[in-house]
Specification:
The protein is of the alpha/beta class. Helices cover 53% and strands 13% of the residues. A five-stranded parallel beta sheet has the order 2-3-1-4-5, sandwiched between helices. 34% of the residues are buried.
């Protein structure tokens, strides 16, 4: 495993890996773990957006819909050019979810020295993520996210992924960047598959 991690580090350089998946698919969990393994910085569009919403007292995402593209560009894209991230690779959690945003994300990332070198899709069914949603509500381990308050809003998020984010993933597939990973496994198994498939990129 360590040899594969080292090979991935050398291949990645200061580039970026963008992790996608349905809500509750484990994007942040796997992204944070991958960032720690690669000594990379983790950027989550969801965390950035919710922080800016709290700061500006503007609410774009509470209803489950994606934020407008112009707001995404203003709030999220400047993070790529932060000086404290300059020397590090980046692990991104679903940055650029709306069809058309991916081209701008790739352009800005490359211009800042963090070219996107792979895009990981954690594959899991909508039925399974709804089950995870219900379990998380019972356990109370999803915090106070307004877009996780009820199943109706959660299903809007699923619809947004279907209609707006799926075409983004198709574009990445056409560019040869997309890596499909079975997200319906134990967390360690998901991580091991991510590492193995990234390692194959280095060969």
């Amino acid at each position: 495993m360590e040899e594969k991690i080292t090979a991935i580090k050398n291949w990645l350089g200061t580039g970026s890996i963008n992790v996608f998946g349905l809500p509750m698919s484990g994007k942040d969990t796997q992204g944070i773990r991958l960032a720690e393994a690669l000594n990379a910085k983790f950027l989550s569009s969801g965390l950035i957006i919710r922080a800016r919403e709290a700061e500006t007292r503007q609410n774009y995402s509470d209803n489950g819909a994606l934020i407008p593209t112009n707001v995404f560009y203003e709030w999220v894209l400047p993070y790529f050019e932060r000086k404290d991230l300059f020397e590090y690779p980046l692990i991104l959690s679903s940055i650029g979810r709306w069809q058309g945003e991916e081209d701008q994300v790739m352009s800005v990332a490359a211009g800042a020295g963090h070219p996107i070198k792979a895009v990981i899709l954690l594959n899991i069914s909508e039925a399974d993520v709804e089950s995870r949603f219900e379990a998380a509500k019972t356990l109370g381990d999803r915090g106070e996210r307004n877009d996780d308050k009820d199943i109706k809003t959660f299903r809007i998020r699923l619809q947004e992924f279907r209609t707006k984010t799926f075409p983004v993933l198709q574009h990445y597939k056409e560019l040869g960047l997309l890596i499909n990973v079975n997200g319906d496994q134990l967390r360690d198994a998901v991580f091991n598959e991510i590492v193995e498939k990234l390692y194959q990129k280095t060969l």
